[in-house]
Amino acid sequence: MVTIKKICLLISLSLITFAKAYALEVVASVSQNPAVINESIDLIVTVDDKVDSSIFDFKVLEDNFRVLGTSVSQQTRMVNFDTTRETRFTTRLIPKAAGTFTIPAFSYKGASSTPIKLQVVGKSAQQTAAQDQDIYIEAELSADSVWLQQQVSYTAKLFIGVNLNSGSLTQPEIAGALVEQQGKDKENETLVNGRRYRVIERTYLITPQRSGEFVIDGPLFQGEVVDGRRSQFFFNQTKTITRTGPSLTLDVKPIPDNYAGHWLPSELVMLNDEISPPQQEYPVGEPITRTITLSALNVSAEQLPEIKVEYPSSFKVYPDQAQTHTSARNNQVIAQRIETAAIVPSKIGEFILPEIKLTWWNTTREKMETTTVAEQKIKVVANPNQQVVTPVAGHNTEAIECIDVVEDDKTDASATTTPTPINDNQSIWSNIYVLGLIGLTIISWLITLWIWFANKKSAPAKTSIENNNGRDEKLAWQQLLKSLKNNDASDIRSKLQVWLNLLLQTEHNLVLAKLLNQIADKTVAEQLAAMEASRYSKQPSSWSSDQLKNALTKVRNQHLVKQQPQLNKLNP
Fold first, then answer.
1. What is the C-alpha separation between 136 and 233, in angstroms, rounded?
2. Which of 313, 316, 296, 318 is nearest to 354 (CA)?
3. What confidence score (pLDDT) does residue 415 get?
4. Cα dist. 245→43, 135, 169, 331 in Å?
5. How confident is the model at residue 152 (pLDDT cuts 50, 70, 90)?
6. Which one of 232, 246, 311, 327 has the lowest number of neighbouring Cβ atoms within 10 Å?
7. What is the per-residue pLDDT for 541?
8. DSSP character for 540?
9. Helix %, strand %, coil % for the chain, to 5?
10. How far apart are CA 268 and CA 271, in angstroms?
11. Euclidean distance between CA atoms 10 and 3, whole angstroms
12. Where are the alpha helices (DSSP H) in 381-488?
């Protein structure tokens, strides 16, 4: 019996030892406790098994710490045929504030680590002074309080007083906002308390997308600096250093309840209207270039609304694709939206281009304002390059339209009338006379058509297109040639758009970009790009329109040849 008890006891002890040997354990520890505010520490979590790298979510620590990233390593050991495996998670943390915080337990398959109480203390005056002698970060906002979607500038300055081997600076972080770097880094040197520092200045634009009070976590610097001590191999040793910028608070105000229209918060909004060429009278059928520019301070270009413009029904409108630009001047961001259109008057007379109104929110005065472009009068006169049949004076012309005449046909017509009193009989005979003239005109026109068709059957195909579209295309081509001769980039774009619509006989007025895709000419695209580059370049450019003119002439000739009636196939 004693032997049986001993055997059972040995078996029990073996089972307990075996269970302990294969029990899963999760252990958590920190590299230092207490930690120092704004200085990094490492949280190490180990699992004595080979596990997936995504089993733990360290985002639960983001309320009290900045989580910089996690590295995962695995080890497998074999001693006397006993194999052990271990997975290690190392997460770098930076405490945001002083106090006592609890790092929670991390669990996996029933095994959990022990929670850690971490004490975070502030820097001593001696520590602060010592660090400030090496590397530190300063940060400031252009405004502590802004309106929703109003841009604010965040400037970070990195002061470096030691030899730096390498380093990186992250951007500030804020919830519910867009953060983008503005321009390039600025670098200079300065003296602080008698010590020389290398200063790297970086500016960010923050565009809040939600209202409320937000904390901006300062940028994080991590780098390798020369330690100053020499190793046994006489090489300078380096050490890793981490610095964070100060946290700043930003108050974002919501859209006011009494605001109506497209939300546009800015200190200043301007509308500029330009008509080219500037002159007192404009011939009918010739394109006029109208450019409307919307400018606003401290907003993104994407925030600028589309400019809605109404035109009289007697104008054909060929809008170009809108262009947006952003630039920085005197620590302020200027956003612009430029809308260009070619407008072509089709009737003679005086017309009014209605005023343009744009509502915006003045962030300085904190009230809604309206920017207006005043209405403009356009006087359209007869075009000497176009010939029209003029109706007989003194009679009802409301239902009689002007009929274009082929340029090769020349008709001389002159009539002088003297206003005299007429009675009913005279009016009847006058009406009969007018109807007779109209009848004769129609008969003459029919005879002309019959002769033209008869000649067409026997004559070879002509290269010109004798219709309204052909004459409009010729006129638009002549206007484009004038703009090319003057090297006027703005006028070339508008007239090129009008001419291409006529040449390609588009059903709808297409923008220039789509028209260029249709002709698919590489030389034209390259020359237009060179023209735009010279137009907006800060340096003077010697761009010439000669190559563009040659390329467009080639395109025109090719399209006109395609529109020719084809000859019948010759019999062998």
1. 31
2. 313
3. 37
4. 22, 11, 10, 21
5. very high
6. 232
7. 59
8. -
9. 25, 40, 35
10. 10
11. 11
12. 424-458, 468-486
* Axis crossing angle, helix 489-504 with helix 546-562, rounded to the nearest 10: 10
Per-residue DSSP letter, 59? G
Question: φ and ψ at 287, to 5 degrees?
Answer: -70, 145
Q: Is the pLDDT score of 387 beyond 70?
A: no
Strands 177-192 and 135-141: unpaired
Burial readout 510-536 (b: 16 or more C-beta within 10 A, e: otherwise):
bebeebbeebebeebeebbeebeebee
User: Which residue in this structure is represented by tokens 């670098």?
Assistant: 187
**Helix crossing, 522-536 with 489-504: angle to 10°?**
150
Give the β-pairing of 349-353 and 356-362: unpaired
381 strand-pairing partners: 283
In 3D space, the residue among 380, 381, 377 whose CA is nearest the CA of residue 273 turns out to be 377
User: Which is more confidently placed, 416 or 379?
Assistant: 379
Q: What is the mean pLDDT of the chain?
A: 78
C-alpha–C-alpha distance, residues 6 and 4, integer Å: 5
CA-based radius of gyration for the chain: 40
Phi/psi zone of residue 285: left (φ > 0), alpha (ψ -120 to 50 degrees), beta?
Answer: left
Structure tokens belonging to residue 355: 């005023």
Spatial separation of the C-alpha atoms in residues 556 and 7, rounded to whole Å: 106
Of 402, 390, 388, 394, the closest CA to residue 422 belongs to: 394
Contact 548, 569 (CB under 8 A): no
Q: Which residues contact 255 (CB under 8 A, 6 or more apart)?
A: 147, 148, 211, 263, 361
The helix-helix angle for 489-504 and 468-486 (nearest 10°) equals: 160
Alpha-carbon distance 500 to 553, whole Å? 12
CA dihedral (441, 445, 448, 453) in degrees, to 10, reads -170
Return the pLDDT at 462.
39
So what's the pLDDT on residue 140? 93
Q: Which residues contact 278 (CB under 8 A, 6 or more apart)?
A: none
How many angstroms separate the CA atoms of 208 and 302, rounded?
Answer: 14
The three-class DSSP label of residue 69 is: strand
For residues 371 and 391, give the distance between their C-alpha atoms in angstroms, rounded to a whole number.
45
DSSP H or E segment with residue 368: strand 367-373
Greatest Cα pair distance, the chain, in angstroms, is 153
What confidence tens digit (pLDDT) does each residue in 69-91 have?
788 887 777 666 667 778 888 88
Q: What is the pLDDT of residues 180-230, one digit of tens each?
A: 998 889 999 998 887 889 999 999 999 999 999 999 988 988 888 876 655
Count Cβ atoms below 10 Å from residue 146 Cβ, excluding itself. 22
**Sequence-distant (≥ 6) Cβ neighbours of residue 492 within 8 angstroms:** 480, 483, 484, 531, 545, 548
Instruction: Measure the CA–CA gap between 357 and 359, rounded to whole angstroms.
Output: 7
Query: pTM value?
Result: 0.57
